Amino acid sequence: MSLHLGLFRSVVLSALYSFALLLPSLATAEDKMRTYFGTYTGGGSEGIYVGELDLKSGELKLI
Fold first, then answer.
1. What DSSP string runs through 8-63?
2. What span, in angstroms and rounded, lies between the C-alpha atoms of 6 and 43?
């Protein structure tokens, strides 16, 4: 019986920990989203770019 209780306790604590990790991202979920996109690295390209997408207007700007 104690094995089941220990397993249950582990599952509950894991779920709570996972939820706690998600809380900051849920609290900051606004109208903007960080985006990452890449290009080929040849010929003057910088490789990976970081942008911010405004979800209301659709505007994408480099950060």
1. HHHHHHHHHHHHHHHHHHHHT--SEEEEEEE--SSSS--SEEEEEEETTT--EEE-
2. 58
Q: What is the pLDDT of residues 41-56, one digit of tens each?
A: 667 777 788 998 888 8
* 4 token code pair: 């089941």
Distances (CA, A) of 3 to 7, 17, 33, 48, 63: 6, 21, 44, 48, 51
Q: Which residue has the tokens 């582990």?
A: 10
Model-wide pTM > 0.70: no
pLDDT per position as a tens digit, 23-39 = 666 555 578 888 988 87
4 HSE (CA, 13 A, CB side): 1
